[in-house]
From TrEMBL:
<dbReference type="InterPro" id="IPR023210">
    <property type="entry name" value="NADP_OxRdtase_dom"/>
</dbReference>
<dbReference type="InterPro" id="IPR050523">
    <property type="entry name" value="AKR_Detox_Biosynth"/>
</dbReference>
<protein>
    <submittedName>
        <fullName>Oxidoreductase</fullName>
    </submittedName>
</protein>
<feature type="domain" description="NADP-dependent oxidoreductase">
    <location>
        <begin position="15"/>
        <end position="307"/>
    </location>
</feature>
<dbReference type="InterPro" id="IPR020471">
    <property type="entry name" value="AKR"/>
</dbReference>
<dbReference type="InterPro" id="IPR036812">
    <property type="entry name" value="NAD(P)_OxRdtase_dom_sf"/>
</dbReference>
<dbReference type="GO" id="GO:0016491">
    <property type="term" value="F:oxidoreductase activity"/>
</dbReference>
<dbReference type="Pfam" id="PF00248">
    <property type="entry name" value="Aldo_ket_red"/>
</dbReference>
<keyword id="KW-0560">Oxidoreductase</keyword>
<dbReference type="InterPro" id="IPR018170">
    <property type="entry name" value="Aldo/ket_reductase_CS"/>
</dbReference>
<dbReference type="GO" id="GO:0005829">
    <property type="term" value="C:cytosol"/>
</dbReference>
Length: 310
């Protein structure tokens, strides 16, 4: 495993992290048992992963509770726990007000059974609370030791700039993967210039870059991905065609598309860690191996040519 320091902290994050929205019954993953969910986190921590990503909304609080139960089995210094708040799943609203964020941090600490959260993200901007006020409150929580670093998620470049001028932003979490490179236009260069790490979410394009889907793949009723543009008719087929071409490169490298996709992200400037999700411990172990895949300039150019075809 490779490690780096989370910017503006002395916390060591692993290049491959773990996304845990499957743990605790997120809509897509209702059939994952709680024990299997906990075993995903154990598989990660037992095999060199230190960076665990959750959020208060995952499983409506249950993800944090289950992750917290597992974390108790490990020394505090062995992991870096990131969680997110500022969206209230009880009434489906976003709330970045200082009062709400303070309460949300307290609730997350309780569910995780910890004294401090290593990285706390505002999950989504609420477009009402001035970014300044939200970041100031997180800075206060940081000086009180309740959180160790501040992150934002799903922020525009303007919102990120504002946040970064009001407080010390360590990380931004955004959708970024081979099939959606929109952040490369503006946010990624800004982050590289300003020492903010980009934590890509959906690194496997929510399953498409797992390489298992074909044109007969149908999303079940209620699957949240039904509203994701990547899965819309026409777009989905284009994405499958790209995956097919990537399979050719993966085969030559004696690997598969999922590991190629993770290694490609890690090769991008500004990305230090990826947080793939999954439902099986085997997937966690498989994803770990992406860290050994080095992509040289020529390969990156070849991949780029394929991705440009979309
Ligand atoms: N900040 C935000 O707003 C936000 C939004 C979304 C996600 N996130 C975070 O990002 C994390 C990752 O995103 P995600 O879980 O939604 O999507 P993802 O990592 O792109 O994809 C996960 C899917 O990939 C498949 N997969 C995993 N490992 C695989 C492997 N080795 N080979 C083949 N397929 C594999 C699994 O499919 P099967 O289960 O079908 O096998 C799983 O459904 C989340 O867990 C969460 O922590 C944050």
């Amino acid at each position: 495993m490779k490690y780096s320091l989370l910017p503006k902290t002395d916390l060591k994050i692993s290049a491959i992290g773990l996304g845990t929205n499957a743990v605790g019954g997120h809509n897509l993953y209702e059939n994952l048992s709680e024990e299997d969910g906990k075993n995903l986190v154990r598989a990660a921590l037992d095999n060199g992963i230190t960076f665990i990503d959750t959020a208060d909304v995952y499983g409506k609080g249950r993800s944090e509770e289950l992750v917290g139960e597992v974390l108790k089995e490990y020394p505090r210094g062995q992991y870096v726990i990131a969680t997110k708040g500022g969206s209230d799943w009880r009434n489906g609203t976003r709330d970045n007000s200082p009062e709400y964020l303070r309460k949300a941090v307290g609730d997350s600490l309780e569910r995780l059974q910890l004294d401090s959260i290593d990285l706390y993200y505002i999950h989504w901007p609420d477009d009402e609370t001035p970014v300044k006020e939200a970041v100031e409150e997180l800075s206060r929580l940081k000086s009180e030791g309740k959180i160790k670093a501040i992150g934002v998620s799903n922020f525009s470049l303007e919102q990120l700039k504002e946040a970064n001028s009001e407080g010390e932003i360590s990380a931004i979490q955004l959708q970024y993967h081979m099939l959606d490179r929109s952040i490369e236009r503006d946010i990624l260069p800004y982050c590289v210039e300003n020492g903010i790490t980009v934590v890509p979410y959906g690194p496997l394009a929510f399953g498409i870059l797992g390489g298992k889907y074909d044109e007969d793949f149908l999303l079940e009723e209620g699957d949240w991905r039904k509203s994701v543009p990547l899965f819309q008719e026409g777009e989905f087929e284009k994405n499958l065609a790209i995956v097919d071409k990537l399979k050719g490169i993966a085969e030559r490298l004696d690997t598969d598309v999922s590991k190629l996709a993770l290694a490609w992200l890690l090769a991008q400037p500004g990305v230090d860690s990826v947080i793939p999700g999954g439902k099986k411990a085997d997937q966690v172990l498989d994803n770990l191996r992406a860290v050994d895949l080095e992509l040289d300039k020529e390969l990156l150019r070849e991949i780029d040519d394929i991705l440009q075809e979309k």
